[in-house]
Design a protein that fits this description.
Elements (H helix, E strand, L loop, with lengths): L1 H24 L2 H30 L8 H26 L4 H21 L1
Length: 117
């Protein structure tokens, strides 16, 4: 399940970058296609992450479940921020604040995913 989760978030980030560049270029049709595929990846991330979270929470050997919940909240925040950034770019509005939040939460999510868990 871990491989499917990592593959889906890696593909989501790649599709996010491609869709953002296409919106920036002004190609609405192609960017909408990549945006929709990225949304599908978001659903796969949530499904695989939810399954892994359920497996961890039901494991009696794990004592400290706090980092699991923090990672879940950070991961959902990253997905939300990616969607917000793409929709804002589609409308022609770009806010630096959302990019800052995105990078902070993305790096914290990676930190929790590899080092803490």
């Amino acid at each position: 399940m871990t491989h499917a989760h990592v593959t889906s978030w890696f593909l989501a980030v790649v599709l996010f970058v491609i869709a953002y560049m296409l919106y920036k270029k002004g190609d609405q049709k192609k960017s909408k296609i990549f945006h929709m595929i990225a949304r599908l990846m978001y659903l796969l991330i949530i499904a695989t992450g939810g399954k892994m979270l359920f497996d961890y929470l039901t494991d009696p050997t794990i004592v400290n479940r706090g980092p699991l919940i923090i990672k879940m909240i950070l991961g959902l925040s990253v997905i939300g921020l990616m969607e917000i950034i793409l929709v804002q770019k589609k409308r022609g509005v770009t806010k630096l604040r959302n990019w800052a939040f995105f990078w902070i939460t993305f790096l914290l999510t990676l930190y929790y995913g590899w080092n803490v868990l």
